[in-house]
Sequence to fold (654 residues):
Amino acid sequence: MVTSRDVADAAGVSQATVSRVLNDPATVSEPTRARVLRAVEALGYHRNRAAATMKTSRAHSVGVIVAELANPFYVEVLESLSAAFSARGQRVTIWDSSHQAEAAVQAIREGTVDGVVMAAWREDSAAMRAALDSQRPVVMLNRLPAGEGFDSVTSENRAGGALVAGHFARHGLRRTVLVAGPEGVSTADERREGFLSGLRDRGLPAPVVLEGGFSYERADVQMRRHIERHGPPEGVFCANDLMAVAVLGALRGAGAAVPADTWVVGFDDVSCAAWPVVDLTTVSQRGREMARAGAEMLMDRIEGRAGPWRHRVFEAELVLRGTTGGQ
Amino acid sequence: MVTSRDVADAAGVSQATVSRVLNDPATVSEPTRARVLRAVEALGYHRNRAAATMKTSRAHSVGVIVAELANPFYVEVLESLSAAFSARGQRVTIWDSSHQAEAAVQAIREGTVDGVVMAAWREDSAAMRAALDSQRPVVMLNRLPAGEGFDSVTSENRAGGALVAGHFARHGLRRTVLVAGPEGVSTADERREGFLSGLRDRGLPAPVVLEGGFSYERADVQMRRHIERHGPPEGVFCANDLMAVAVLGALRGAGAAVPADTWVVGFDDVSCAAWPVVDLTTVSQRGREMARAGAEMLMDRIEGRAGPWRHRVFEAELVLRGTTGGQ
Fold:
């Protein structure tokens, strides 16, 4: 697909000029305007519908849909989004997906926000699907629904899960537990798949899978119950850091030493994972950078600078700290 | 001062009916209307100005001004506010006081929000003072500026600081450190005063005061520097839990055992203070309950049910965990 950058290159002008010719032609000199319009025609460039709709009325306000503020990962994402948008002069409205999905959809439809970053997604939520189908600029952050019609920023969840499997395998851990996130949530599903297939590929036994629902309390209960029945495992991979902290507490309560008896790995690398009292080995997904990238993508889309839908994927990296041995 | 409840009692109707008579009289039958208006006159009832202004145009939207999302206390407050407001059908706009105080004031002035909860306050911020002077309903949460014209929910910060001094005194700790919050912030000032006067009243030496600025990084640096020069103290009181976690890390890095060598106490009782890996003794200020009370106060004010300004103060309580000995 032809983008406004292609048009800008062909006409020898900036993308901003192309945007001005299409949205506010009076501000561009006649020769430049003609050159840009010739390039538009020659290349067969079509602005995407959402961007075109947007230019007519700007609210200078954006929305962010989050879930799970109990999870520090989303708090860090929210903080970075809020700073990035306000640096661009945007008001930010925040909705909690569990109570306010309908309010968000209404604001999107009524145009009281120019666009939305969705850092939450459930396949079974009609309100969220409606937000996505609204033809307003949407950036999906960390969650990737099926279909198209949005930009996205995600990280390599599958590869991250596989990294943990590789680390356990290299150090001969065979009796492992996965404290998984909720089924049907893309990040949870991908981390689970990456870990399971990583173990399988290396000929290791499948882990015991505990459903932790991304919740501290749930992971705590599940892990205690598992230890009571089966004793502490050799390695535990938790699909987020919050659950990993709960698992550390459950192991401590049972008198299991970390990492001497049991290795524990999280996912996210939130600030408290690096606290010396936590010192958690984890898969880093650089939430703050992802948030900044997402804010930039949304502003590009709102201001008509974006071309085809963009999907940016951040690399996953295993950060080794005190809850595992090995290198 | 006479409240709408007094009028309702005198007229033998509900408060909602009083409100309808004053705001939308056509919806009330003539005999009831007359009875209510007689009671209004007999009792000399005046609606407060802010509430009266409000009733004319409702945005069904409220604002929350927060600072320091790096501090989990404010995240928990925000979560509870968001749940409470959305349960009442309100949209919630969140502003970060460090970037967006001006945007908040503009929204308040333009009436795009019906009222505001301010969980941040700086005496030197003209924008914040303007928000307070806007005649719109404002609830101050946890921070208490000078002057009047608002409802507030705070906790006993001074008494909380004194509780910690008492605990240290009872167990004979003499060489103590206070990791203080920023001067000019009411919560920080009050906790400092409570701790200092608590030690003084018991004839104990004054603590070394380190300026931690309510920040993890700052508290970490200050505590490391202090230990290098003076060795680990017997007791450390930190003006919030986030700084206490940093202090635990700094002590661990220096090889000091907690609580064998040094006792550490925080303030807030955020969820992670109770994590077994943190297990922090702290002054609880029940942020979630404070937030719910604040949301209720704001809705009362917006919907014209509130009388004189209300100032609700939550009790402080010392929660003993593993970072101190004693009872």
